[in-house]
Structures are given as C-alpha cells and as structure tokens.
Design a protein that fits this description.
Length: about 210
C-alpha cells in the first residue's frame, strides 16, 4: 500500500497533479512546496478531532490543552472520568457522549493502518460522533493515505471555486466527481487546495 510518509511523497504527487491539471500548476506556483501535514494516529488524534468539531481553532486548541493537562487523552482515562471531569476541560454534553463512545469502541488502531481506505472510513464512522469528514481527514493526515479526499469540506470547496473561477462553491457531490480526475493523488490535491485556500484567505479576508 502506497502511503504519504515524507515530503518527497507529497512533492511527487504535486508534480503529477501539475501535469494533469494546469490550474494545479498555477496554484503550486503560488504555494511553493506543500507541507507534509502528517500527524500521529490513534485514540488521541480522533478525540482531538471530536473536540475540534464546531468550535474555532483557538477554542479547540485551548480545550485540547486542558484535555491533555488533565490526562484525559486515553481510552481508559475517558472511561474512568466523571461527567464533571469532562465538563471541567470544556467538553459539551454531546462531546462527552462522543468521547465516551470513542473510548468504548475499542478500535484496533494498528489494524486500521493496514486496512483499505473504505474499511478505515466505515470502521470510524460506525462510532457515534465520527462522521465521514472526520474519518476522511484522519485517513489523509493521520494515516497518510494517498488517495482519500474530503469533498464535503467547505475550505476545499471554496478553494476549487476560486481556482476554477466558478460562480459558486461546488457541492460535495460535484467536488467528489471532479476529484476523480486527481486519483491516485487526491490526498495531495487536498493539501494543495488547503494551502491555496489559506493563502487566498489571508489575501482577501475570506471568512
């Protein structure tokens, strides 16, 4: 199984995409070399993503800092924690439920590393609180999957709108269809589009 493990892997994918799609070549001229964006996998990575749902980046970082400081970043700790313990670090009632569901799911994270992309997504989305987007992002940026994409991501949709000069953001279905042409390097396309979006957001004040 081909994985994204190094910056050279990302560069290889970016070069392929630039040949396939001239718009990507133009975007790469703006972004320069793309970041690896690869983080450790496991329970903590998924819990962090649950914590980050529907809050600002700053709030997510603050809450996650409290989770780690309280020693609540392991399945055993979450299972043993009281409601007051979880509330004290800033988890809402739904997120307490999702954190406990993740802790009780007993996911075999080692096995996920070797599972097919489809099995990774299906295994993770079987857990309450983990949707398709979260599973796709985990596959891309924690497991290094080469050909996973997240068409429902608003930043990716907006990046494509700008780069393709579209009148409106593509829907998730439209973007999923468009991204088929970027296989087998769709996760590198995501890195490129995220990076491009960040640059344009800073330039134009996109909210």
């Amino acid at each position: 199984m081909r994985l994204i493990a190094t910056e050279s892997d990302v560069a290889e994918g970016a070069a392929w995409l630039a040949v396939q799609e001239p718009r990507f070549a133009s975007a790469l001229d703006l972004t320069g070399p793309l970041p690896l964006r690869l983080a450790p996998d496991g329970f903590g990575a998924l819990l962090n993503k649950i914590v980050s749902q529907q809050v600002s980046v700053a709030s997510a970082r603050a809450i996650w800092g409290r989770v780690e400081a309280a020693g609540l970043a392991s399945p055993h700790a979450v299972r043993s924690a009281t409601e007051d313990d979880l509330k004290a670090v800033g988890l809402s009632r739904p997120k307490m439920k999702y954190a406990r569901a993740l802790a009780e799911a007993d996911i075999d994270y080692d096995a996920l590393r070797n599972a097919s992309d489809a099995n990774v997504i299906s295994s993770l989305t079987a857990v309450s609180g983990i949707g398709v987007w979260t599973a796709q992002v985990y596959a891309m940026f924690n497991l290094g999957r080469v050909d996973v994409f997240a068409p429902g991501d608003l930043a990716l949709q907006e990046a494509v709108r700008m780069l393709w000069d579209l009148p409106a953001r593509p829907t998730a279905k439209e973007l999923e269809h468009l991204a088929q042409d970027w296989s087998p390097w769709r996760a590198v396309a995501a890195r490129l589009l995220f990076t491009y979006y960040g640059i344009q957001k800073n330039r134009e004040g996109i909210s």
